[in-house]
Prior knowledge:
Strand content: 15-25%
Helix content: 10-25%
Order of helices and strands: HEEEHEEEEEEEEEEHHEHEHE
Shape: rod-shaped
Distance between the termini: 151 Å
CATH architecture of the domain at 4-215: Beta Barrel
CATH class of the domain at 4-215: Mainly Beta
CATH topology of the domain at 4-215: Porin
Number of strands: 16
Amino acid sequence: MKNLSRLILTALLVLVVVNVNAQDKNNPWQVTVGVNAVDALGIDQQVGNEDISFSQLYNVAGEWSNISSPSMLTVGKYLDDNFSFSVSGTFNRLDKWNPNLDFPGINFETSPSEDAISVEELMYYGLDGMVKYSFSELLNCTDFEPFVGFGGGYTWMEQPGADLAGLATINGTVGVSYWINDLIGITAQSSLKNSFDEVVLVDHFQHSLGLTIKFGGKDSDRDGVYDKYDICPDVAGLAEFNGCPDSDSDGIQDSEDTCPNQAGSAEFNGCPDSDGDGIKDSEDTCPLLAGTLEFEGCPDTDGDGVSDNNDACPNVAGLASLQGCPDTDSDGVANAQDTCPNEAGPVANNGCPWKDGDSDGVLDKDDNCPNEAGTVANNGCPEVVFPTEEEQAQLISYSRTINFALGKSSFQKDAISTLEAITAILTAYPKANFVVEGHTDSVSSEGFNQKLSEARAAQVVTFLTTGGIASERLESVGFGETTPIESNMTAAGRAANRRVEVKLAK
Length: 506
């Protein structure tokens, strides 16, 4: 056990290596390397009959024993709720000891001082465990971390040539850590070590000062924010948002961003307003054109109350009923579709008024004869004057006197005057239409007679048209031998049946 100091330090280093990857919360592991000093005189001390205990606690030169090399190694792990547990190994070389103590196996030599006895090559070893409570969170302090601790351990002392001797202690500790950054700090602490056998081992103080390093912090998403403080530990984020992402870099973290993939503003919970009209794009019918709330974000350039997106004439004020287009003549037809924009007219006539080309009082749309003056009663056409019944009877009578040669369609010369009289009657009634009927006797075959009757009627029509009667007013029809007016048994009857008849068309 002569080299106990080395064994203790070696054991603690192994503990660190084994647990270096063990992780709980942010940087749960803590290692402190430093120096320690032992004060065995500051508690139970008398001068003559006077008790001066605790009066020399900070008499460093007169009462503290220390060694000029790293002499302390502490390994600690964060538990929870500001509690942590640590194990410390220390060694020291004592040159001052309490005169009231006669430690078994140790030879003390009285020094000239009445307050202490001088010792030589007296080695001091300690292995202590402690539960520590930090006040840093309670005080909302990040740089300074005051703490208290309670625990126990074992203290050994060894003198060359003597056996190693040791006793258990109960320890109370106060201290403070100053953190240079998140991982490195300086720790100072004082522990009162209370012996279970005060006759053998006096109560004493052990002070330490060391460099402290934190490690073992977990950053699952590798965003530089430890999981302990990372609200979004599985998704890489930003420190300003406690480790949560801001995918669109708009300054609003995704969990509070209604539009996490589109840069927006806080006013709209991270959603954009591309045209800056105060209406977010998702509710803006015209997201790239500044508009008004009245028109769901769309503009009304011409101010006619019809938004541009619904305005067929966005730059000219118009009527809502005409998709924002104007109607100068107020006829219900937009100017763009109005053939007569300055003259009111119906939709059916492309915005133009109906005309009366023949000025007969009947509009062309209702005029059956738009180019010829007529009467309203006759739908714009001239009233048709028909021959009287007497005149119609006269026409039939005249036409029956037209004689045709037997088996021929040509009429006799004496029929010319009769045909001219018929022409005069037809001329007197220019709007009346007529039918010229051809007839034969029963001589010859029916087929022959049918063709012959048609030819005779056509011959008369030819004469009338030559005389100035419009052809469209005349119709020729052949009846063959089917409608005799006399008996075909006599020559006179057959002559009467060889005839034409001019009649008013029905």
